[in-house]
Amino acid sequence: MRSDERPLVAGVGIHPFGRFDKSLFDLGCEAAEAALADAGVAYTEVDLTVASSVYSGMAKGQRLAAHLGAIGNTIVSVESACASSAAALMVASQAIQSGSVRVALCVGFEKAPRGFIPGAGFEDWQTVSGVGVTPIYFALAAAELLHQTDAEVSDLAAVSVKNHHNGALNPFAMYQTPVTVEDVLSSKTVCDPLTLLMLCSPNEGGAAVVLMSADEASRRGVADRAVCLAGLRVVSRSSSDWFVPAPSRRTGRRTSLTARAALGALADAKLSIDQIDVIECQDTDAASELIAYCDLGLCGPGEEAALLRSGDTALTGRVPVNPSGGLLSKGEPLGASGLGQVFEIVTQLRGEAGRRQVSRPLRGLCHVMGAGHVSAVSILVA
Amino acid sequence: MICVAALNPQGDGNWRWPELFWGTPGTPGDPVTLRAGRCSACDGLSFPVLRCCSWCGERNVEARPLPSKAIIVATTSVLHPVPGGEISPPYVVALARLQGTDLEILGVTDCQVDERPLPGHIVDVVVVEPFSTPGLMHYAFSTSQDNDS
């Protein structure tokens, strides 16, 4: 991808994540209208709308567009579990790069059921046998991390403390109250070693971005405020990856789909992980954030806990991770969470993140994982 | 993964998901042999058997039995009801490597939450009947055997 072909994020918008007495489409429309206003674009000027949601049924994009003022342009609906909105971003990005689309709108919106998420990519026999929910797999990965590295349960709690600290500074987060290590450790055990405060809550919300080409942004006079989507990879699992609903896996060949996504996206952007200033990563549970440290290349195997303890991933650290509070404090509206990360990184790169603003970031990274089947990494450059 | 296998609740003797098993599973407590696929090209194992090798894509995959002993890699407890699940909590789920292979599989165990096996513990793969529906059975990792690991 040549640099002049890279799409620009010209506008971002978000509806807070939480639980609301609103319709699904109200959540999406409020986010979309905020992003359109941020980009100075009317919906009638949008060539392509890509909608992502997991629980909203068929023709979600078209139904959303009816509320935005549908004009008969192209609308695509996508679903890739928790990576749904990253898939939407990929579709819109490629459409912009192809030259067939001038302005694209990505909208993620969700009203997820409470509690365990059913049907998250499992086979029927897995569901019947009582293993068809994701926290079991997160917990096994956490247990393995604790067994194979020097990470301790207190480190898992510390991830939650860090992210809830950041979430307390984020008006869009579901939980805006700091917690202590003791709070986390004494909260209800869900699947040990994971307690309730080490797991994110499925919830409701919306997020949206407006993409356009550099030429279009210049023509509209919005290029200065736009952020470049310099790299984006959406990678599906291979059999040697440990993924959430895996019936089996092979030892000795263990690979990471997140590592492949990160390497690809960074190569697209002609950057190394050392040049990334701020990261939003998939902290569906506290251990997943630690595992992502290694998968993204922030540290080597076994060094995850040391990186956390060093403070480098704290809001004031060398490379803050989840300055938004992450999913642990925002909660996770599955179809919107990826674009929620893009909202956060763009806001950070613009220097508009208020009390949770990190120090002068120029390059950010977003990482989402869809039910362990899909990993997506995007690179944003100011 | 786990489980599975379940005798038809109507009691007609047919196992649900028979493709997961090598032969006909016995009664609760009996060893059970799971059915894997072995690739003729790369020798890689997959459970369950798939239409092609999950490691190299080769289509020539032959079924073969898996060992009925496994080494515990990690465990967790399930303390709350799982949507669609027919096992009443609490119960323990384990990730275990089948002995003599490089294949790890998931399964429930027959142990209590406070008596779970540690990593490295050797367990047997057996038939259990843990479901709330009478007659439903599946495989599980059993910790009841003597262990010198």
Description:
The complex is a heterodimer of chains A (382) and B (149). Helices cover 36% and strands 20% of the residues of chain A. Chain A has 13 helices and 12 strands. Chain A has helices at 24-39, 60-68, 84-98, 124-128, 134-148, 153-167, 181-186, 214-220, 257-269, 286-295, 304-310, 326-330, 337-349, and strands spanning 8-18, 48-52, 74-78, 103-111, 189-191, 194-195, 204-212, 227-236, 248-250, 278-280, 363-370, 374-381. Chain A is globular and about 55 Å long. The model of chain A has no long low-confidence stretch (mean pLDDT 93). Chain B has 149 residues and is an all-beta fold. Chain B is globular and about 45 Å long. The model of chain B is unreliable at 1-5 (pLDDT under 50). The chains are: A alpha/beta (382), B mainly beta (149). The interface between A and B is large, with 37 and 46 residues.
Spell out the helices and strands of chain B N to C. Answer: EEEEEEEEEE
Order of helices and strands of chain A: EHEHEHEHHHHEEEHEEHEHHHHEE
Read across the widest sheet of chain B, the strand sequence of neighbours is: 8-7-6-9-10
Mean pLDDT of chain A: 93
Strand composition percent of chain B = 25-35%
| Overall body shape of chain A | globular
Strand residue percentage of chain A: 15-25%
Alpha-beta classification of chain A:
alpha/beta
Structural class of chain B: mainly beta
Total number of beta strands of chain B: 10
The main pleated sheet of chain A reads as: 9 strands, mixed
In the predicted model, the low-confidence regions of chain B spanning at least 5 consecutive residues are 1-5
* Oligomer state of the chains in this structure: heterodimer
What's the arrangement of secondary structure elements?
The complex is a heterodimer of chains A (382) and B (149).
Chain A: E1 8-18, H1 24-39, E2 48-52, H2 60-68, E3 74-78, H3 84-98, E4 103-111, H4 124-128, H5 134-148, H6 153-167, H7 181-186, E5 189-191, E6 194-195, E7 204-212, H8 214-220, E8 227-236, E9 248-250, H9 257-269, E10 278-280, H10 286-295, H11 304-310, H12 326-330, H13 337-349, E11 363-370, E12 374-381
Parallel strand pairs in A: 2-3, 2-4, 10-11
Antiparallel strand pairs in A: 1-7, 1-8, 4-7, 5-6, 8-12, 11-12
Helix pairs in contact in A: 1-2, 5-10, 6-10, 10-11
Chain B: E1 6-7, E2 15-16, E3 35-39, E4 45-46, E5 61-65, E6 69-78, E7 91-98, E8 103-108, E9 122-128, E10 138-142
Antiparallel strand pairs in B: 1-2, 3-4, 3-5, 6-7, 6-9, 7-8, 9-10
